[in-house]
Every structure is written in structure tokens, then in C-alpha cells.
Amino acid sequence: ILSEIIELDKLKIVSAIAASISHEVRNPLTVTQGFLQFLREPNIPEDKRLQFIDLSIEELQRASLIINDYLSFAKPTLGRIEKLDVYSEITYVINVLTPFAMINNVDIKLIGTEGIYVLGERQKFHQCLINIMKNGIEAMTSGGVLTILQEGIGNQSIIKIRDNGIGMSSEQIEKLGSPYVSTKNSGTGLGTMVTYRIVKEMSGLIGVKSVLNQGTEFTITLKIVR
Ligand code: ADP
Ligand code: MG
Questions:
Q1: What's the gap in Å between 164 CA and the centre of ligand 1?
Q2: 25, 69, 75, 189: which could form a disulfide with 180 (CB 3.0–4.6 Å)?
Q3: 188 lines ligand 1 (CB under 6 A)
């Protein structure tokens, strides 16, 4: 019975995420479809034509931002739970994010060791880390260092992701994990929701410490498997 309950809970998480994606991606797609149909009409004034094309591009960019916050790796996830080496997976994600960090004048520093394992779906674990690291990089508006500390303490794998960016007020911290809350111009407000759900699905904990104009530190705690 216990395993059934856990399975149901997981299904709920998956379907909630899926419902959110389709809702958020469908809107820009519907709008773009409408514009394209309109553009088939002959004799559309040139300024209207350009306006519809620009709006379509914007809408498609929005759809792709949303998909990026959910699934940066567009590979289908197999739903396979594996034993993951935390240090190696963080290294993989750092490599993926390095170009983005460079554009933002951010160096990524990792301190940790191999040989600490947790259970989870690789793709989702990557997504969870990417969303937090991306926020950290985006928070350092004039560049800086994103520091990742990874260690094993007792039977707990601890990952700390620290930035020296703009920080958050306590009101902002309270809203973390709720969908569609963003302080950014082109933010989706979906990244932390996805991260929180994935950590929950891995039976882990996530905490945050933040000081306005000084920086933020997220801590993910997961159970070590031998
Ligand atoms: P988005 O990045 O699209 O805005 P997220 O769900 O990833 O959506 O983040 C929600 C909000 O949480 C951000 O808009 C920002 O206000 C705040 N936030 C998250 N991480 C950080 C951070 N490291 N530093 C400052 N603010 C953050
Ligand atoms: Mg984000």
C-alpha cells in the first residue's frame, strides 16, 4: 500500500507539470497560428504584416523559454531511476551552462568529490540543478562567481549553490516554488516550481538563504545510497 501511495503522488506531480506546460505553451502557439492564417490573406498592409511577424517571433520565443525551464534536454525522459554520482552530474550541468555563464560574465566554481551517490532520474536531476544555477547567474547582473559546494555528511548529500547577486526579500522567498511568479522581464516563473517538485519527487529537501543586494544560497539535501 505504501508503494502505491508513493506512485500516486509521483503521478500527480508529473501530471501537474504536464498540465502546466501544455497550458503555457499552447497560448503562444495558438496566437502564432492565428497570425500565420492572417498572413495568408492578400493585400495586408506592410506595417501590419511586419507587426504580425514580429509578434509571432516573440510568441515562439516565449514558448521556447517555457520549454527550456521544463526540459532543457529535449530528449524524452525514460522515467528510469538510476544511481547518480552527484559530482559528475553537477559537472555535466556546469558544462551545459558555461556558455550562458560566459555571456553573463560569471565564473562557475565547483568544490566537491566524486563517489557520493543519490537515486533519481538523470534528466530531471539536471533540470533541477540547471534552473537554480540559471537563476543564480541571472541574479548577478554585473557578473560574479557562482559557487557550488557538494559534500556528503553522514547519509546526506548536500549541494549548496551560492551567488553574490541581487538577493531576495522575505516576500519573494515565500513565493518561491509557486508557478508564474517572476521578477524578470522575460521570466516564466516556472523554474523554481519545477525544481521544487523534482526535489520532492527525489524525497529530498530544499532550503534557501538570501539577503537583498548580497546574494542567495540554495541548499539541496538528498539521501545518499551506497
Ligand atoms: P524566472 O527565472 O523565469 O523568473 P523562476 O521560477 O526560476 O522564474 O524564479 C522565480 C523568481 O525567484 C525569479 O523571478 C526571482 O525573482 C527569484 N529568484 C530565484 N532565484 C533567485 C536568485 N538566485 N537570486 C535572486 N532572485 C532569485
Ligand atoms: Mg528561472
A1: 14
A2: 189
A3: yes
